[in-house]
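Progress against Task 2.4 (sequence-to-structure conversion) is shown through the following example record, which the project officer requested during the mid-term review.
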Amino acid sequence: MGRLLNIVISLIGLILLSPVLSVVALFVKMHDGGPVTYRAKRVGIRGAIFDLHKFRTMVPNANKMGGGITVLGDKRVTPIGRFLRKYKLDELPQLFNVLKGDMSFVGPRPEDPRYVERYTPEQREVLSVPPGITSPASLHFRNEEALLSGGDWESKYIEQILPRKLAMELEYFPSRSLGGDVRIIIRTLGGILK
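Structure tokens generated for the chain above:
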């Protein structure tokens, strides 16, 4: 998906979804009075670090209470946060990332710098394209946190899930097309509505 198309669609999306964004922001704020959004450091194209925007789904200062990945039954997730995560509403502020140019609609999901440091030279090829809101791997691992349970969740993520995600991204993006990207977006929306 080209940059101009990303700009146009993200602008339209922000305008059309502004009532939803406002309502979600209000509910997050009313729940515990904490910040409405959360900014996470992520690695973008060519290794550039950027702030990924999300609606906050965890208690304030959750990053000081546990790991950087949410696991099954994570106590830091608020009740409103569980709802937002289930329907992917917490991802809506990433439209601002797309508008700014940090991200695209379709691209490898941006990863935490701690895990990017572990990439092999081949895996680092995913950094040659802009990260995205959705991708083949994010569709496949839509319920990723359900796979991460127990005390060894980080090892499981690093050794099993992350390599599979990267392999899927590397398989798709060298031969991506506008039609393929549109199909991924439709499948993503279908999965949310389902």
